[in-house]
């Protein structure tokens, strides 16, 4: 019997990708045949880092996972998921404060695409408080963020800070 490939989309702004995101991704990559990290090009939150750079930074950080792909999209996540043949969305939960929004989002997605399910994962406690926003803020004040983000992101933020772009 041939089994259908289980494909999951991990959507987000990834502005920039953090070790929290990578931890979620690592767990997801063990649960699904293929995981597509999908960077939202124009989300509600105005991104500081251009989408091509966000994609490149993720690619450099996920080279060790052979069932992970990185892409970007615009528009509805479930439409993108359908286009890619994915039946699952991955989202990370940090604290109770994430829960209400994530619950609404998953149920809104369920009402427009009932065949697609959302899977929530949590990170190791040491990554729980990390957010892209905090990383940008600390880095902007010249703080070392190497505990929170992959090396490629540390170097990128340092370059951008020197140029005064971020
Ligand atoms: P979005 O703008 O869609 O919230 P983010 O890039 O901020 O995009 O986050 C993408 C997903 O990763 C979200 O589900 C978010 O809750 C999750 N996430 C981000 N940081 C962490 C973390 N440190 N631990 C667990 N989940 C996280």
Largest sheet: 5 strands, parallel
Distance between the termini: 53 Å
Total number of helical segments?
6
Bound small molecules, by name, code or SMILES, are: adenosine-5'-diphosphate
SSE run: EHEHEHEHEHH
Structural classification: alpha/beta
Pick out the low-confidence regions.
none
Provide the residue-averaged pLDDT: 94
CATH architecture: 3-Layer(aba) Sandwich
Order of strands in the sheet with the most strands? Answer: 3-2-1-4-5
- Shape descriptor reads globular
CATH topology: Rossmann fold
What is the number of independent domains?
A: 1
- The amount of helix comes to 40-55%
Describe this structure in words.
This protein is of the alpha/beta class and 166 residues long. Helices cover 42% and strands 17% of the residues. The structure holds adenosine-5'-diphosphate.
Describe this protein with a few key phrases.
single chain; 166 residues; Rossmann fold; 5-stranded parallel sheet; 5 strands; 42% helix; globular; binds adenosine-5'-diphosphate
List the SSEs and their pairings.
Elements (H helix, E strand, L loop, with lengths): L6 E6 L6 H13 L2 E7 L10 H11 L6 E6 L3 H7 L4 E5 L3 H17 L4 E5 L10 H9 L10 H13 L3
Parallel strand pairs: 1-2, 1-4, 2-3, 4-5
């Amino acid at each position: 019997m041939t089994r259908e490939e289980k494909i999951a989309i991990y959507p987000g702004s990834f502005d920039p990708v953090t070790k929290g995101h990578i931890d979620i991704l690592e767990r997801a990559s063990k649960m699904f045949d293929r995981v597509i990290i999908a960077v939202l090009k124009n989300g509600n939150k105005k991104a500081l880092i251009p989408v091509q750079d966000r994609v490149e930074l993720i690619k450099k950080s996920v080279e060790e996972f052979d069932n992970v792909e990185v892409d970007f999209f615009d528009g509805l996540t479930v439409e993108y998921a359908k286009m890619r043949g994915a039946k699952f969305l991955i989202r990370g939960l940090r604290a109770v404060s994430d829960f209400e929004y994530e619950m609404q989002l998953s149920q809104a997605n369920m009402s427009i695409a009932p065949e697609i399910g959302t899977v929530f994962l949590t990170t190791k406690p040491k990554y729980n408080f990390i957010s892209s926003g905090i990383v940008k803020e600390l880095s902007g004040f010249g703080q070392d963020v190497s505990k929170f983000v992959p090396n490629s992101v540390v170097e990128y933020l340092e370059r951008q800070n020197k140029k005064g772009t971020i």
